[in-house]
Write a structure and sequence with these properties.
12 strands, 36% helix, globular, RdgC, double-stranded DNA binding, DNA recombination
Amino acid sequence: MWFKNLRVYHFTQKFSWDETSVTSLEERRFSPCARSEPASVGWISPLGQEDGPLVHELSDFVLVCLKKEEKVLPASAINAELDVRKEAYQNEHARPMPRKEQQSLKEDITHQMLPQAFSKYGITWAIIDLTGQRLLVDASSASKAEELTAVLRSCLGSLPVKPWGAEHPGHHFFTEWVAKQTPPHPFTIGFEAELRGERDDDSVVRFKNHDLTTEEVALHLQHGKQVTQLALEWSERLSFTLADDYAVKKLRFSDILKEQLDDVHAESRAEQLDRDFALMSAEFSELLNQLEQALEIQATVEP
């Protein structure tokens, strides 16, 4: 359950959570794909129980979990069957199969093969922070996060959110922090960065496990490159990489936090979830509050 990434959204209108919201998720409780379905998506219990509650609430934080099943059909298998049928058509009619019929036949073949296809599964976690009026999605890509917001919106009827971040892309801040070695307190610069030229076709330089105070890095900045991803550490509690679009990636919890968890023994899975969720959600809330100050983010919420 521990998040590895954060795609953050902030509510543009005051958002609340009640029993009606909980009930609305039941309409999209996950069920496996039918034989002829290419995909299925729905909510599952954070506790992992098949019929368990679909939300886990603690103070002003709400934890939800979305599951997706997709049938895997290799394009090579579909195309091989299509070639066999195209050849049979040509032998029978003494002419190639028309393109429109090929497309229709390809769809038929896909439909016929679906019952024998393997399935792959994916799970996406999200936290609704009612105090901070933010939605935090554990997703490395924007498309995966937006899939969760789309399903949540379809259940609730409305989800007034927009991507969290400053008015300008992150490189406006990151480049200055690295050039002057002056990250805002209490953040420190880590040992990874991505530098890009000002034009899309310019070169990209990536540093990993590298001292970003060296002359090599300074020369790239002097030649016009901008820092579009930057590793940061926060208060010796979390380390992460902040991207140009303000996605938080490669989240790592410090030994200090891990030791706090080791000091408390959980009697059940529910207690374990409570313990982990309480610590993680509180840390994320404070982290984002301090990032908003450092990046001058003004996430206004209409009444």
